[in-house]
Design a protein that fits this description.
single chain, mainly beta, 7-stranded mixed sheet, 11 strands
C-alpha cells in the first residue's frame, strides 16, 4: 500500500510564512512528478506548483516569487515553502504524486487528504 500525507497547515497572518510537507510512504518503487494543488470553498482546484524527479519546477503566476517547492528523492518527500502569504492563499492544500507501486509497471496518481491553510488578520 501507498500513503500520501500532507502536514504543516494552519492559521497565519498576511505577510507570514508556512512550510507544508508531503510524505510518500509504503510499497513505493519510484515517485515521479509531484504537485501541489489548492482549493478554496466554492472554487475549482488550482495547480500551485510542480516539481519533477529531476528537480525542475513550475509555479502558478499567483504564487511565483513567494512560494518555493523542493523535494528529497531519497526520502520521497516534497516541501512547499510559502512566504509573504496573502488572504487569497487561503485554501486546502493537496499533495499529488505520480507513483509507481512495487510490482506495478505504470505510474498512477495518488492524492493526500489535504492540509488547511488560512491567511487572515
Amino acid at each position: 500500500q501507498v500513503q500520501v500525507r500532507e502536514s504543516g497547515g494552519g492559521l497565519v497572518q498576511p505577510g507570514g510564512s508556512l512550510r507544508l510537507s508531503c510524505e510518500v510512504s509504503g510499497s513505493v518503487y519510484s515517485v515521479d512528478t509531484m504537485r501541489w494543488y489548492r482549493q478554496n470553498t466554492g472554487n475549482q482546484r488550482e495547480l500551485v506548483a510542480i516539481i519533477t524527479s529531476f528537480l525542475s519546477t513550475t509555479y502558478a503566476d499567483s504564487v511565483k516569487g513567494r512560494f518555493t517547492v523542493s523535494r528529497d528523492n531519497a526520502k520521497n518527500t516534497m516541501v512547499l515553502e510559502m512566504n509573504s502569504l496573502k488572504p487569497e492563499d487561503t485554501a486546502v492544500y493537496f499533495c499529488n504524486a505520480d507513483i509507481r507501486v512495487t510490482g506495478v509497471f505504470d505510474s498512477r496518481d495518488y492524492w493526500g487528504q489535504g492540509t488547511w491553510v488560512t491567511v487572515s488578520s
